[in-house]
Amino acid sequence: MTASTPLHDLPAAAALPAPVEIVLGVYLRTLREANGRSLADAARCAQVSVSTISRLERAENSVSPHTLESLLHYYGVPGREIEYLQSRLPRAKPGTRHVTTRSSRARKPSDPSGLFRHGRWDKWVDVTGDTAVARYAAVARAASETVYYTLFRIPPGYRTPAYREVINAPEYCPHPDEPAEMPSWLEHVRHSRPPRRILLLDETVLRRPGAGPEVMAGQLRHLLDLMDGRGGPGPVSIRVLAGDRASDAIQFAGGEVGTFTVHGNRLIAGMHTAPWYETGSAYALALHDALHRAVEEAAGEEDSYALIRQAADHWTARAAS
So what CATH class is 122-321? Predict the structure, then answer.
């Protein structure tokens, strides 16, 4: 994408929670349910209304540092993690009142010419190790709609156990996108309805031998099963994208990026050395548009199915040779 490519204006401020607020909404709801607490229990703990807790969990209200501390402490989160998450909340300069992304962005004029223009709270990199990776997995599971592109590895949620073991080995991947041990709270992530998922596989993924021929063959056949409606949490569309069809914006994101819809909020997210999230910026809008254009330019479902089956047959033959 060139600097002259026209971009959308930034959306109205009032509609945009910060990425950290969206992720924390998922985290707070999941922790509450994992601890067997009701909305009323959480409201009593934080000394707020039940509707306030519900809106916080859907990122419809901004959470104050005090309320966040009360809730996370109630759910058994360690103090050091609480302090870190408090420090990531959108706020004004120290000593002034809490200011959300919604109100602060409302005071800024739109500047659509800058692809890498960000508001102060438009991007968040979560650097809390395995807990950050678990939160990343929670967001992916909670999303009602997902469009995810990968240039390198099959993402979580689509993997066989054998592929997962190989792909997350330290010698293969120093920064796994799944926690070494799944925390028990992660199993409590739930959807309001079956999610709509689109996985865009760069064609080079089908040819990568990193997991080994036998494991790769099994993994690709698992994708075929998912496309046939077997073994997944809901309908999934898996499409193969020719390498020269991925836009510069997608390539710049590091080869693994998705757009997630969580409680009606659109969130761009990916994984490098740590999970990152972005929304509201010109770059986030460009990535969202690029991902949806890639869906239109990818091979159709029948052709993609044939390409994946052909690759699976290739790796099966390699494993037998």
Answer: alpha beta
